[in-house]
Design brief:
2 domains, five-stranded parallel β-sheet, 16% strand, 546 residues, alpha/beta, eight-stranded mixed β-sheet, FAD/NAD(P)-binding domain, binds ligand NA7
Length: 546
């Protein structure tokens, strides 16, 4: 075939839309729904074979919400709220995926979605004012607007360990968990990592595994989830209170239903501290993190007291005192990294078939054909599970060749850390909107609450452009600088900005990710919303529109 002919064929096969959305998770699904309201033609490109994003990929046993289920669902359809019943306070992955599939069916979302389509390139064509997007199977689109809904934790990362590919048995990252059920009965299983994912997974695997070895580099401060069923009477009651529930969430720092205590730990008596902490420790969900005294996450002294309380709780549950100390973090205070929520996590370590391998004492030297070799011995395994986390927040962007005006690469613009305006737009990349982008409140949030804010804001912006006959919107460098400054100054007081974790972009498994970069937004949802609404009220100040 001549090259002229193939070029012509390729050009013919470019599909045109008003907007292309990348990702069919919680954000992409809602964004599509709202684009239709604007009368825009839109297509969602999704790497997976179905909708659901996080809940499509993370199928490991034990995967569930840490948000109360009824605070996680979409709030924008009365009908949907009336029709869907949650069966557990913290719903499990299969039910969450079923919910999102139910939404996709109900609003016929799939007809404007293309699955098994991993986007590889997104280039802005200045002359035509459009985005050209290509997927890994050569499908090409052109659209005026590009909306990324990539998810902040969608790029799983394997550890940098020699010999990973040498292991002869099955091994996988928790986020690439196979669709078929795995029977661990009597099997020798290794889990590497002890973050929020591992803490959900480990008690489930321990139920049937013959031997379970947990490879821990650093322990985390885990708190009890206290999950339980929601019966019909309670669900009926929740339905009458939805409006109030969502209002509460939208008024809190991170979109949860847990309202912070107005007092400071350092200003009350030891008895009053103990009283609140005991109560929150006994209550379901993130209350112990989000409804704590208001100085616990910002003042080191207050944090140290809370940290000691949490340490006592761990010691109480571990039979072997030496082992208990290994499970108590010493490199960060309570709540300064993501608090994993647990169900019988600590009790697992009291069981004879479970072993903690402390990698500070005996580091991993290599994965071998039969198992894992640490500095003291080689253990054989039937399965190796990597619960080693993600290339957080910017990872999804880095995997796509995104180029703006004059072919400038987003990767280069963000080389020293992400720069955005409102976490939603970037100078030099006109008409590209980044839902749950870096430095956006949605990165540290009960996700759907912030996602709805993001999507609604972008939708209203697009409506404004439509109504004013405008087709191009681009943040200015100055607006981006000012936002960056606000992100840093408002985040500075939070203790979690001083700790290495995915919040601060530190990942020893990724080249160049050893310095802290601030990926989140730490002034909270209400401040974020106010700032975003101000921009709207001031006719999109900080953007150049044409
Ligand atoms: P996290 O929270 O990033 O945890 C990853 C875990 O894997 C953590 O314990 C890491 O230890 C460990 N890890 C990473 N690399 C290695 C190597 N090379 N060797 C040993 N151990 C390693 O990811 P999760 O999936 O648990 O949770 C992510 C989010 O998903 C969570 O915050 C929720 O919002 C949902 P480290 O502490 O770095 O020493």
């Amino acid at each position: 075939m001549g090259s002229a002919q193939s070029a012509a064929e390729a050009a013919n096969s470019v599909h045109s839309y008003d907007a292309v959305v990348i990702g069919a998770g919680v954000s992409g699904m809602y964004q599509l729904h709202r684009l239709r309201e604007l009368g825009m033609s839109a297509l969602v490109l999704e790497a997976g074979s179905g909708v659901g994003g996080t809940w499509y990929w993370n199928r490991y046993p034990g995967a569930r919400f840490d948000s109360e289920s009824y605070t996680y669902g979409y709030s924008w359809s009365e009908e949907l709220l009336a029709e869907w019943d949650w069966t557990e306070r913290f719903s499990s992955q299969p039910e969450n995926l079923k919910y999102l599939e139910f939404v996709a069916d109900k609003f016929e979302l799939r007809r404007d979605m293309r699955f098994d389509s991993r986007v590889t390139t997104a280039h802005y064509d200045r002359a035509a004012n459009c985005w050209e997007v290509e997927t890994d199977d050569g499908f090409r689109t052109r659209s005026t607007f590009l909306i990324t809904a990539l998810g902040p934790l969608s790029i799983p990362v394997l550890p940098k360990i020699d010999g990973i590919e040498d292991f002869a048995g099955p091994s996988f990252h928790t986020s690439n968990w196979p669709k078929e059920e795995i029977d661990f009965t009597g099997k020798r299983v290794a889990v590497i990592g002890t973050g929020a994912t591992a803490v959900q997974l480990i008690p489930e695997v321990a139920k049937t595994a013959g031997r379970l070895s947990i490879f821990q580099r650093n322990p985390n401060w885990c708190a009890p989830l206290h999950n339980g069923p929601i019966d019909q009477a309670e669900m009926d009651d929740i339905k009458t209170r939805y409006q109030e529930i969502f209002e509460t969430c939208n008024d809190t720092f991170a979109g949860f239903a847990h309202v912070p205590d107005r007092r400071k730990a350092l200003e009350v008596s030891a008895e009053e501290r103990e009283e609140l902490w005991e109560r929150l420790w006994g209550e379901p969900g993130f209350g112990i993190w989000m409804a704590n005294f208001r100085d616990v996450l910002v003042n080191e002294e207050a944090n140290a007291l809370m940290t000691e309380f949490a340490a006592t709780k761990i010691r109480d549950r571990i039979d072997d005192p030496v082992l208990a100390e290994k499970l108590i973090p010493t490199n960060h205070g309570f709540g300064t990294r993501r608090v994993p929520m647990e169900t019988n996590y600590y009790e697992v370590y009291n069981q004879p078939h479970v072993e903690l391998v402390d990698l500070n004492e005996t580091p991993i030297e290599a994965v071998t054909e039969n198992g894992i070799r640490t500095s003291d011995q080689e253990r054989e395994f039937d399965y190796i599970i990597y619960a080693t986390g993600f290339d957080a927040v910017t990872g999804g962007f880095d995997r796509i060749d995104v180029r703006g005006i004059d072919g400038v690469r987003l990767r280069d613009v963000w080389a020293a850390g992400p720069r955005t305006y409102l976490g939603l737009q970037i100078a030099g990349f006109p008409n590209m909107f980044t839902l749950v982008g870096p430095n956006n409140a949605a990165t540290f949030c009960n996700m759907p609450r912030c996602i709805e804010q993001n999507v609604d804001w972008v939708t209203e912006f697009l409506r404004y452009l439509q109504e004013h006959g405008l087709t191009r919107a681009e943040a200015t460098e100055e607006a981006m600088d000012a936002w960056g400054e606000h992100v840093v100054t408002s985040g500075d007081r939070m203790l979690f900005t001083k700790v290495n974790s995915w919040f601060t972009g530190v990942n020893t498994n990724i080249e160049g990710h050893d310095e802290r970069r601030f990926l989140l937004y730490a002034a909270g949802l209400p401040v974020y919303r106010e700032k975003a609404d101000e921009v709207t009220a001031n006719r999109y100040e900080g953007f150049v529109l044409s």
